[in-house]
Amino acid sequence: MRCAESTTQALVAAAYGEMQGDAGPVDLDYAVGRDGAAAAFYITRQGRTALTAQDDGTFLALFDADIAVELQKLRRDLYFVHAAVLTRGAAVMLVAQPGGGKSTLTWALLHHGFGFLSDELAPVDLDTLEVHPYPRTLALKREPPGSYPLPRRTVVTSRTLHVRDVPGSIGKAPAPLGAVVFVHYNPDASRPAIRRLTTAEAGARLYANALNPLAHARDGLDGAVRITAARPCYELVSADLSATSALLVQTVVA
Questions:
Q1: Could you give the strand order of the β-sheet that contains 40-45, starting from the edge strand earlier in sequence?
Q2: Residue 24 pLDDT more than 90?
Q3: Exposure check for the chain: N or C terminus, fewer CB within 10 A?
Q4: What is the distance between the alpha carbons of residues 97 and 235, in angstroms, rounded to a whole number?
């Protein structure tokens, strides 16, 4: 990624700094920047019409969406799930619909001994059941409860809060999948609850959150069943963050 000026460079570093590596073969070549005359951000790459955004949050959202699709094209062998992934020995995949509390729970669990593998994409190798890292910076839509305050280096955009300093370790290598947890935040619940799912129910839920099912056998159904039949799957109703974190640790950590 080539950044044309300092404002865009700072945004890219805030969102993708943990993914920076040594120069090597180039599969995707982006040029990003800000047009001073139009006061708009732009994203360009070969073979694609330029994308433009009027503010920093929209710029990062557009880039997130574009690179997620392109990575799925490059790695069709992997089964991509919209999920956060944490590690504590094995990987724990947190799957939720937008607004379901996935990222906020991720932030809390990082204070309870978990490492960070991904906030957004969970690329699974169906042969080994390992999850590849995608450590884009943890992005929250709103401030978490006071018991889990944000660090000073949090970068605030028009849409999200990008948390640059996480308390847990940041994974750089694939991790064996240990469990899949489908998260639903219920603000009216007095306490959290968790239950084990059958393979069929978990498979249907996972399939609904798969991003590239058509790249796999039987339109991705085999991949969803392969994952959920091999690993324990749970439905978690999230309430108070401390209590929810303790319940999850008790359930999925050996």
A1: 2-3, 30-35, 40-45, 48-53
A2: no
A3: C
A4: 13
**Sign of the Cα pseudo-torsion (221, 223, 228, 229, in order):** positive
Torsion of CA 98, 102, 105, 109, to 10 degrees: -160
- Same domain assignment for residues 83 and 200: yes
Residue 20 has a pLDDT of 82
Which of 74, 98, 123 terminates a domain? The answer is 74
Give the position of tokens 């990624």: 1
Provide the angle, in degrees to the nearest 10, between the axes of the packed helices 241-252 and 102-109: 70
C-alpha 33/C-alpha 15 separation (Å) is: 15
CA distances from 87 to 95, 131, 206 (A): 14, 10, 19
Q: Do 69 and 108 have their domain in common?
A: no
pLDDT digits (tens, 9 = 90+) for 153-210: 899 999 999 998 899 899 999 999 999 999 999 888 899 999 999 999 999 999 999 9
- On the 0-12 / 13-18 / 19+ scale of CB atoms within 10 A, 148 is middle
pTM surpassing 0.90? yes
Q: Domain check: are 140 and 47 in the same one? A: no
**Do 109 and 59 have their domain in common?**
no
Query: Hunting for tokens 């919209």 — which residue is that?
Result: 82
Token pair listed for 134: 């995608």
- Structural domain count of the chain: 2
* Residue 88 shares a structural domain with residue 33: no
Under 8 Å CB-to-CB from 99, ≥6 apart: which residues? Answer: 141, 185
* Terminal Cα-to-Cα distance of the chain (whole angstroms): 41
DSSP summary character for residue 134: B
